[in-house]
Write a structure and sequence with these properties.
By secondary structure, the chain is an alpha+beta fold. It folds into two domains: 41 residues, no CATH class; 59 residues, no CATH class. The chain has three helices and five strands; from the N terminus they run βββααββα. Strands 1-3-2 form a three-stranded mixed sheet, with no helix packed on it. A two-stranded antiparallel sheet has the order 4-5. The longest helix is centred in the middle third of the chain and has 24 residues. 6% of the residues are buried. The model has no long low-confidence stretch (mean pLDDT 90).
């Protein structure tokens, strides 16, 4: 079956710890057979928190780099991302959901 797959295809053998579903898969290794990458990661769920943490950190980094230049934060009050993420500015509520609560 692996031989008949397109070059560059990827297989994730999720049963590799129990012997595997793919001939050629190896526990905790990624191998290439006949141009097909076979991933034999033994404990996939343990990797998910790491990936989620990396993604969250990258998103926060991107947001902060957008809101700041090399010297300081730049508060472009009409810019969509700033408007959506800023809650209070110079002591005043600026986010619509907070403004409603303050005036209610």
């Amino acid at each position: 079956m692996v031989k008949s797959m397109r070059f560059g295809s990827v297989i994730l053998d999720m049963a590799v710890e129990q012997g595997g579903n793919v001939i050629g898969s190896e526990l905790n290794k990624t191998v290439v057979k006949h141009g097909v990458t076979i991933i034999g990661e033994g404990n996939i769920p343990s990797l998910l928190p790491l990936n989620a943490s990396d993604l969250y950190a990258k998103n926060i980094e991107t947001l902060l780099l957008h809101l700041a230049d090399k010297d300081k934060f730049k508060w472009e009050m009409e810019e969509e991302i700033t408007k959506g993420s800023l809650i209070v500015h110079k002591g005043a509520a600026v986010h619509p959901s907070v403004k409603k609560a303050v005036t209610a």
